[in-house]
From TrEMBL:
Gene name per UniProt: LOC106171558
Domain (AMP-binding enzyme C-terminal): residue spans on this chain: 478-561
KW Transmembrane helix (keyword) present: yes
Superkingdom classification of source: Eukaryota
Pfam families: AMP-binding, AMP-binding_C
Protein name: Acyl-CoA synthetase family member 2, mitochondrial-like
Native source organism of the sequence: Lingula anatina
Gene3D superfamilies attached to this UniProt entry: 3.30.300.30, N-terminal domain of ligase-like (3.40.50.12780)
All copies of domain AMP-dependent synthetase/ligase, residue ranges: 34-426
Keywords annotated in UniProt: Membrane, Transmembrane, Transmembrane helix
InterPro entries (alphabetical): AMP-bd_C, AMP-bd_C_sf, AMP-dep_synth/lig_dom, ANL_N_sf
Transmembrane segments: 258-281
Length: 577
């Protein structure tokens, strides 16, 4: 009987497993810091540029000393392994010390965005079972810090009439609260007894004890609280190092808020894990002010070899005035994430900074960075593999149809992931955890991708972003890639708006370049040009959007991504039926 199935057909299915590139061990995060202190105690661990000017630094030895002192103080408050503490703070050196101190004693940090309403912050602390809150607020934000503490003190404390524990940094601690400065005691070292106690507790913390919880961006609904233990997050950091070549010992710039996934996974926790010097600033400088010249100067003055650059920083650097002595001559590698790179912006960046190896990484809060691609020259952006990303080591990936079955290579389907860096669970959201993962521990990303014959993936769209017009699914990225080529288009996002006849119609949300002419006239020109690029398809309809709207800036999610949900709402209110 002749075989009717050839085994090599299996290779045509969308599945890949990348082998680990490093051995596993049972260390926890502060173990890595203590090892790095032995290697280079006087190396700068972090350099901070605040909004008001100047800068401050902390060495590896100072980070170890201060984190041990703070850990000793936290132990005296009665905090124990496994308890949770809410941390709400801006980017600052104290943030990093708090991260390391809590990790030493097995206290899980719940990260809350700085600037969140006091009631929201306290509700998060209560819903996640926090035993205490740590609030850092400096200068003009002191009143904000006080408002959080006051709201927190209204929370009943089980079995005690005392107010719940609050630790204040940068503003005065009122009665019943503790001062961060008093716990750290910057002008004196911890006693031998305190050091012994801290390391005794640290030795009892294990790799599967909880480390931290991060909030998702909320781009697909209400933000979820994503819990990681030490082992899982260390594997996230391994993947991060894969996307940042030669990062060990690098001077690395990252402006992202530390409470965001990319600020932790590709930022502060790389200090103990990889021995980097993290150069960071107040995000208001890079986001609100858009000061590309200052960022470029910081990169040069701090002799940064690596930089994390969101798309808007790349834009600011491209358009910053030329100063010969302040290029990016020392930066060897720049990494971008958050959303797919646009070919035109990538080409402009590489043309202006030809010595920089540019990479992009693709990840999510629940799994960390899991795929990447690098570009070494402008010509790479015209290659068929542009935006086709290689999976990180120790990662399994598959692409499935709506029935959960593997699709063939180069077929669109949902991306599922599995590996040791998969998060533990959503805090206080058991149903959400069950919905996010299959019984076989595959995480359902909600992203539509294709996988090529080499096991690389290309992002197509969020499942929730797909537009169904007249029974045909349209993926916005295929329209956006064409419109972005028009010289008057700086950025573009295509969304769906309600339509009585076709259910949905396409609307292009456009940020125009700085060129002469009225917005209305330029939009009309772009619309006419776009119509020429998209002849009618098999369904008789063109992919050219019916509507165009001009924006000065796009709304952002809590984690800094372009908010398609808000753009869809604006477009629907403007043109929807």
């Amino acid at each position: 009987m002749e075989a009717s199935f050839q085994t090599d057909q299996r290779s045509g299915l969308s599945y890949v497993y990348k082998l680990p590139n490093l051995p596993q061990d049972s260390r926890i995060i502060p173990d890595y810091l203590d090892d790095k202190v032995k290697e280079h105690p006087e190396r700068q661990a972090a350099v901070y540029y605040p909004m008001g000017g100047g800068k401050s630094c902390i060495t590896y030895r100072q980070l170890q000393d201060q984190s041990v002192q703070l850990a000793a103080g936290l132990i005296k408050t009665g905090l124990k392994v496994g308890e949770c503490v809410l941390l709400i703070a801006p980017n600052c050196l104290e943030y990093i010390v708090i991260e390391m101190a809590c990790a030493r004693i097995g206290v899980c940090l719940i990260f809350q965005k700085f600037g969140s309403p006091a009631t929201d912050a306290v509700e998060m602390a209560k819903s996640t079972g926090c035993s205490a809150v740590i609030v850092c607020a400096f200068g003009s934000s002191a009143l904000y810090g006080e408002s959080i503490v006051q709201e927190w003190q209204k929370t009943p404390r089980d079995g005690s009439t005392d107010p719940p524990l609050a630790i204040c940094a940068g503003f005065k601690a009122t009665e019943g609260n503790l001062s961060y400065e008093d716990l750290v005691r910057p002008n004196e070292l911890a006693s031998a007894e305190e050091i012994h106690t801290v390391f005794e507790v640290q030795s009892a913390v294990q790799m599967e004890d909880p480390l931290l919880a991060l909030m998702t961006s909320g781009s697909t609904g209400k933000p979820k609280v994503v819990l990681y233990n030490h082992f899982q997050f260390i594997n996230v950091l391994r993947a991060s190092c894969f996307t940042l070549p030669n990062v060990d010992g690098a001077r690395y710039f990252n402006d992202r808020p530390f409470s965001w996934a990319v600020g932790a996974m590709l930022g502060t926790y790389l200090i103990p894990f990889s021995g980097i010097t993290l150069v960071f600033l107040d995000p208001e400088i890079s986001v609100r002010k858009g000061d590309g010249v200052m960022i470029r100067n910081i990169l040069q003055d701090e002799r940064c070899t690596h930089a994390f650059l969101m798309a808007y920083i790349m834009y600011d650097l491209i358009h910053a005035d030329a100063i010969p002595e302040y290029g990016l001559s020392l930066v060897e590698y720049a990494l971008s994430a958050g959303q797919p790179l646009v070919k035109e912006m990538t080409s402009k960046f590489m043309a202006k900074f030809p010595n920089v190896l540019l990479g992009q990484t693709y990840g999510c809060t629940e799994f960390g960075p899991f795929a990447f691609q690098t570009y070494s020259m402008v010509a790479d952006t015209d290659h068929v593999s542009f935006n086709c990303l290689e999976m990180a080591p120790n990662t399994e990936a598959k692409v499935v149809n709506s029935d959960g079955r593997l699709v063939t290579k180069n077929t669109v389907g949902e991306l599922l992931l599995r590996g040791p860096h998969l998060f533990e669970r959503y805090v206080t959201n058991e149903e959400g955890t069950k919905a996010a993962c299959t019984p076989q521990h595959w995480f359902k990303t909600g992203d539509l991708v294709t996988m090529n014959d080499d096991g690389c993936i290309r992002f197509v769209a969020r499942m929730s972003d797909a537009i169904k017009r007249a029974a045909v699914l349209i993926y916005p990225v295929e329209v956006e890639m064409v419109i972005s080529k028009h010289p008057d288009v700086d950025q573009v996002v295509v969304v769906g708006v309600p339509d009585e006849r076709f259910t949905q119609e396409l609307c292009a949300c456009v940020i125009l370049t700085h060129s002469p002419g009225s917005s209305e006239e330029r939009l009309d020109t772009i619309k006419e040009w776009t119509s020429d690029q998209f002849p009618p398809g098999p369904d008789g309809l063109s992919l050219s959007p019916k509507y165009f709207i001009s924006f000065q800036d796009f709304p952002k999610t809590a984690n800094g991504k372009t908010s398609r949900r808000d753009l869809t709402k604006i477009a629907a209110e403007t043109y929807g039926c």
